[in-house]
UniProtKB/TrEMBL annotation:
InterPro entries found in the cross-reference section: DegT/StrS_aminotransferase, PyrdxlP-dep_Trfase, PyrdxlP-dep_Trfase_major, PyrdxlP-dep_Trfase_small
Protein name stated in the entry: DegT/DnrJ/EryC1/StrS aminotransferase family protein
Species assigned in the record: Paenibacillus oceani
Entry annotation: catalytic residues: 181
Cross-referenced CDD domains: AHBA_syn
Length: 379
């Protein structure tokens, strides 16, 4: 056996959808991106979405929408992918690292309150591995303080918390369609919000600051080819080359049709893992999984002797991963280090196991048998 950690589930449907872009010979920012943005908004239940080329770009632009003065602070969980905190630095803001809740591994609301001061302008809420942060309590905490909530939903496309789609609880939601995530466009991301006016300037920011994209100019030219001004555009602000393109959107449109099915398959795999780990002494589930509600990008366990376990699984052909090192262990973020004892205590035991829709029941059973073998030799 040789079992991968993650694998995108792509096939005929994505190829067929891509073919439409090839036939139209329009591969860049164009009508397929608009279609995907509309369908994504309707899927998650929000007013407006802007397609970009990664969730990293989405987080950068989402924070930039508020034009916070340089030096303002943003609350970020200690345990997350670097992009969550990188977006803060891109905007000339200061990250304040907040400890994690020991149960959910998401941002601790108690530590959030401790770390907050009047200079904190926003909080980045990450649904760790797809497990929902307590968004009702978080939003209720943030609103009266005027703290904006950016939801980093990179791990949880299609997931829900208390019946409401993740990414729509906060002021702005950001999603990742990178190849390992719940659904993919190869690389890609989406910014979603109910505040359409807030997102409007971001359409220019993602396209080098230009106030009309090439498709708009092309369409204007087609509709009225006597309008010599269809070439005209203006730039009033700094922009980035962050746009999603029609090839990504074509893949995304096909993946969106499959997203619920892929999440239900992940649910079934997680339930098999949960049942198989009952009674294990050394290998325990890292999260109180509720896969019937949320969408989990990763399945994680806690193992005290992590390195021995990783080696054992590797020798038996099972890939594992570690998500994540606390960010303030990285040289870039060290100077922002505060008190985050739970993140530092827990991360050393975290191991990610294979989880992707095409993982077969036989492969799941094999992974579990490898864990049982580890239990037998290490207990
Ligand atoms: C929590 C989190 N936020 C943001 C990102 C960035 O996503 P992307 O790779 O689409 O830029 C990731 C990527 O893994 C992530 O895990």
């Amino acid at each position: 056996m040789n079992i991968r950690l993650f694998k995108p589930s792509v096939g005929r449907e994505e190829l067929q959808s891509l073919e439409a872009s090839f036939t139209a010979a329009w591969l860049g920012l164009g009508p397929r991106v608009s279609e995907f943005e509309r369908k994504w908004s309707s899927y998650v239940g929000c007013r407006e979405s802007v397609g970009v080329n990664s969730c990293t770009a989405a987080l950068h632009l989402a924070l930039s929408a508020y034009r916070f003065p340089k030096g303002k602070k943003v609350l970020v969980p200690e345990l997350t992918f670097a992009a969550t905190a990188m977006a803060v630095l891109y905007n000339g803001l200061e990250p304040v690292f907040v400890d994690i809740d020991e149960q959910t591994l998401c941002i601790s609301l108690e530590d959030l309150d401790r770390k907050y001061d009047k200079d904190c302008a926003a909080v980045m809420a990450v649904h760790f591995a797809g497990h929902p942060a307590e968004m009702d309590r978080l939003v209720a905490w943030a609103k009266p303080r005027g703290v904006k909530v950016i939801e980093d939903s990179a791990h949880s496309a299609g997931g829900k918390y208390k019946g409401k789609t993740l990414g729509t609880w906060g002021d702005i939601g950001c999603y990742s369609f990178e190849e390992k995530k719940c659904m993919t466009t190869g690389d890609g991301g989406m910014i979603s919000s109910d505040d359409a006016d807030l997102l409007k300037p971001l359409r220019h920011s993602r396209w080098v600051g230009i106030n009309k994209d090439t498709w708009e100019r092309y369409e204007a030219n087609q509709l009225n080819n006597r309008d010599a001004n269809s070439w005209y555009y203006e730039i009033s602000d700094i922009g980035y080359k962050y746009n999603m393109n029609d090839m990504m959107a074509s893949i995304g449109l096909a993946q969106l049709e499959k997203l619920d099915g892929m999440n239900r398959r992940r649910e079934s795999i997680i339930k098999q893992y949960t049942a198989g780990l009952k009674g294990c002494a050394k290998v325990r589930e890292a999260l109180p999984y509720h896969p019937e509600h949320s969408s989990y990008w990763a399945y994680m366990v806690r193992v005290p002797d992590r390195e021995a376990f990783i080696l054992h699984m590797k020798e038996l052909g099972v890939a594992t991963g570690v998500h994540y090192m606390p960010l303030t262990l990285h040289p870039l973020f060290m100077k922002y280090k505060g008190e985050t004892p739970s993140a530092y205590a827990i991360w050393g035991e975290l191991v990610t196991l294979p989880l992707f829709p095409d993982l077969t029941d036989e492969e799941v059973a094999y992974v579990l048998s490898c864990i049982q073998a580890y239990e037998a030799k290490s207990v």
